[in-house]
Amino acid sequence: MKNQLDTLLKNYVAKLNLDAAAVVDRQGLIISSVVSPKIKEDEQLGAITALVDSLIDRIKKEFGGKQEFSNYMNVEDRKFLFTSAGTDAILTSLATAQTDDNALHVFGKYVAEKASRIIAQQANVPLIFPPILDLLGKFQGGKMPKRSFATKVILCGDYQVGKTSLIRRYVEEKFMDSYATTIGVDITKKTISIAEGCQVEFLIWDIAGQRKQFHAYRSRFYAGASCVFIVYDKTRPDSFASIDYWLNDIKSVITESITIMLVGNKSDLVSQEKIMVSQLATKAAELGVPFIETSAKTGENITEAFTYMAYQIVSKS
């Protein structure tokens, strides 16, 4: 566990050029910590440690009983972010004055969630960051309008790639190992808040992956969509090869500009993986669209994918 946390924190510190990052338990005892190579002098490191210890005491008093929290503060020439990492730990991020606030919050939340899963001894927790986090950091830098938005988002792709499971994980936070074929289309609704007074209501259309059976109906299913997830199964190369089919099928109906994202699902099946993330990145670059890898079983990156779509909707308003 500690080796995983050390690697996660090392990547986090390097990504944002932080001074240090640590995962501590709710009593303030360090579980894992990483200090940037630029912090070399023992005296300086000691001063930082003493400052963190004093702030941890304050956080324990203010948030010790809360399951989820994120607290940001400026102290002298440094920024501190304390983010709950599950019910038992806290991620402490120590940044310089030059660190972007939005990037710090986006990556801090992501790292805290991964740290909580490592502490819970879940398998196959990713220790690197999906490119979409950089985009989310930029979106959150803008001022959000105080109003509600409604948008239609569709999930398409071959049969049994996990579209229904992705939606169930996102909306209900549940996963089922058994498979039930979607007949035609299923529609689900979920509303999220991306800023104070700014909400996005998703009407999520889960479109059946059988190409021939429902071809005559899909044009009606696609109509009015603003966002599209094209989903494939990382263990099935044939479903990856179908990306162009689904993209062309969608564009034959929706002629206006829409946001499209490629989704490589079942990232938890590491030993069965056939499509590498480098192949996904190349395909996404070819099509000029963002991409992400997800797992409906673990919940990996599903919230991030929908959050990105929400920011896209608001930014185009």
Textual characterization of the structure:
- With 317 residues, the chain is an alpha/beta fold.
- The longest helix is centred in the first third of the chain and has 22 residues.
- The radius of gyration is 21 Å and the shape is globular.
- The mean pLDDT is 83.
Which regions are unreliable across 5 or more consecutive residues at pLDDT < 50?
A: none
Structural domain count: 2
Number of helical segments with 4 or more residues = 10
Secondary-structure element order, as H and E? HEEHEEEHHEHEEHEHHEHEH
Mean pLDDT: 83
Strand content: 25-35%
Q: Strand tally, please?
A: 11
Shape: globular
Question: Radius of gyration from the CA trace?
Answer: 21 Å
Report the major sheet: 6 strands, mixed
Strand pairing plus helix content: what structural class?
alpha/beta
Helix share, percent: 25-40%
* Adjacency order of strands in the biggest sheet: 7-8-6-9-10-11
* CATH homologous superfamily placement of the largest domain: P-loop containing nucleotide triphosphate hydrolases
**CATH architecture level-2 label of the largest domain:** 3-Layer(aba) Sandwich
- Which class of the largest domain in CATH terms? Alpha Beta
How far from one another are the termini? 44 Å
Query: What's the CATH topology label of the largest domain?
Result: Rossmann fold
Summarize the structure.
The chain has 317 residues and is an alpha/beta fold. The chain has helices at 2-16, 42-63, 101-119, 132-139, 163-172, 215-222, 237-241, 243-251, 277-287, 302-315; strands spanning 20-25, 30-35, 70-75, 78-85, 89-96, 148-156, 185-195, 198-207, 227-233, 259-265, 291-293. The chain folds into two domains: 2-129, Beta-Lactamase, CATH 3.30.450; 148-315, P-loop containing nucleotide triphosphate hydrolases (Rossmann fold), CATH 3.40.50.300.
